[in-house]
Amino acid sequence: MSTIGRPAFGNNPDERGFFGQYGGQFLPPQLEKPFAEITEAYHRIANDAGFIAELRSIRKHFQGRPTPVYHARKLSLSNGGAHIYLKREDLNHTGAHKINHCMGEGLLATYMGKKKLIAETGAGQHGVALATAAAYFGLACEIHMGEVDIVKQAPNVSRMKLLGATVVPVSFGLKTLKEAVDSAFQAYLADYERAIYCIGSVVGPHPFPLMVRDFQKVVGIEAREQFIELTGNLPDAVTACVGGGSNAMGIFSGFLNDPVEIYGVEPLGRGPAVGDHAATMTYGREGIIHGFKCYLLQDEAGEPSPVYSCASGLDYPGVGPEHCYLKDAGRVNYVTISDEQCKEAFFKLSRQEGIIPAIESAHALAFALDQARKMRTGSILVNLSGRGDKDLDYVLENWGTGADA
Ligand SMILES: *Cc1c(COP(=O)(O)O)cnc(C)c1O
Q1: What is the distance in A from the centroid of ligand 1 to the CA of 308?
Q2: Could you tell me the pTM of the whole model?
Q3: Exposure winner among 170, 171, 290, 346, fewest CB in 10 A?
Q4: Which tens digits make up the pLDDT trace of 240-273?
């Protein structure tokens, strides 16, 4: 049976794309029609048996799903307390969960008769995953990226080009993610008959928070079944890191209606001062960014605040609207982990289990290790959203090899 379009928790979103008071569609008038077209197409196509069968086949034969659930036994025993299990999204083709929604968006584009995918990217991870999907489906791909990020993320720029994408340098403003979004929206506006805009997380205007969640739900559905098969029970707790919140919505969706504690882990970076972290749920207040309403790190005038994290995939001042709803509903706990705590977990997993995690995912693991010690017994399932190969340069330059850890 299709799981697409069914609400994860509560009856959300409503037909205008609101999860409680969050989400919606705050668009310039010219973009209302193209987004309405995407919404209509998604609701029609998502329930099409051919679409569902093809997406399943892609997941199995191209992405390498299902990804395993792994009991990190050595790490658990050395840590003490509850046992740690990992949902291995790092074993996806391209090394992270983003391919789950990029393949869905690419398939939707082909069903809609579009010829081109347009998106922005910050650190380049979404750009690489989307360029991969475009190559698979034989679609053109245009990725907008700030000039500052192009210099910082040179290997990902090369990957996108190798995959056949066009990387459009953005040279106005601060030349980073925010300007890249503006540039990508402009390009989409000029080309929406032929192209589709592809958002990289459960953020942006309706229907993207709904659609990206639906494409990521496979993580939670698989993990629940696998965990029960492995242990005979549900986990006592589930954790995932939260940037925009797509990997977290994916795994959380499988457990929202179960008696399971759920924790979303945000980056505290260097500390709680403005500009030193990206802990949106903890320090943000309601605002509008990139066409939707959410908790937002912002100044007095409502402008997004500068954000920082050692994990470039987590440094976004907004967050997915469904997370905001789940926080207010008291169903999910949102907590923080600093760069220092993340670093410790990164080395532990590498050395004790032979798994080098993405720095983003190491945030979820760091919290799980703390929580496991508090719990004493039981089990925690961590969504290991990606592998750390992309982070090697950063780690060697800033943290070393951990030989003294
Ligand atoms: C992009 C990224 C994230 C953050 O994105 P979400 O939408 O919050 O999941 C987390 N982990 C990895 C490995 C990423 O590449």
Answers
A1: 15
A2: 0.96
A3: 171
A4: 999 999 999 999 999 999 999 999 999 999 999 9
